[in-house]
Amino acid sequence: GAIGLLGPNGSGKTTMIRTLLGLIHVDHGAGEILGMDFRAQSLDIRRSVGFAPEDECLFPRVVGVEFVAYAGELVGMSRKDALQRAHEVLDYVGLGEARYRKVETYSTGMKQRLKLASAIVHDPQLLILDEPTNGMDPAGREEVLQLARDLSANKGMSLVFSSHLLPDVETVCDYLVVLGAGKLLTQGKIQDLKNIHQQSFEGR
User: Fold this and answer.
1) Residue 152: which residues within 8 A CB-CB, separation 6 or more?
2) Is the pTM of this model over 0.70?
3) What are phi and psi of 51, to 5 degrees?
C-alpha cells in the first residue's frame, strides 16, 4: 500500500529515508526493508527500491531518456533493457515528447516527473518519494499525485510518500507516520487518526 511520512521540514524524514537506504551510516539501531537488513545489505536494498530524492540530482547536458536509462544501468539492467524501459516510463509520466531534450531545459514539474521515471525504471518492489511536489504549481502537483496514486493502487508498488503537506499525503496514502524533531509522534490509518482527533476536539 501507500504510507505517508509526514512532518515539518527538519523533522527527520529525509534522514530516516537515507539511513534505511544505507546512504547514512548509524552507530546504533536496526531495521529491515523488504526483509533485508539495512546495515548489512544496503546495495541489495537499493537494487530493489526506487528512490526519488528531494534535492536536485539531474546531470546537465544529458537528455532525459539517457538519464533514466543510466538509472536503470546503475541497478544492474543491461544497456538495451534500460533504454527500452526508459522510453516506456517516460511515456508513462508524460515526458515522451521531451525525452531528447537536455534536462536543464525542463521545468520544475518536468524535473520531478523525470526523477520519478528514473526511480521506477527497474520496476522496484518499493518506491520512496521524498517531497515529490516541492516547488510545483497546482496542476503539476496534481499530476505527480495522480502518478503516485496509480503506482500504488494499480501497478503493485509499495509506496512511501514523504511530505510536509498533509493534503498531498491524504490524496495518495491510507496510512500515516508522523515525525517531529527526529522522533515518532504517532502512526496509524489516516481516517482513524482523524476520528481520534475529532473525538478529542469534541470532548473539550
Assistant:
1) 1, 2, 127, 158, 159, 172
2) yes
3) -130, 120
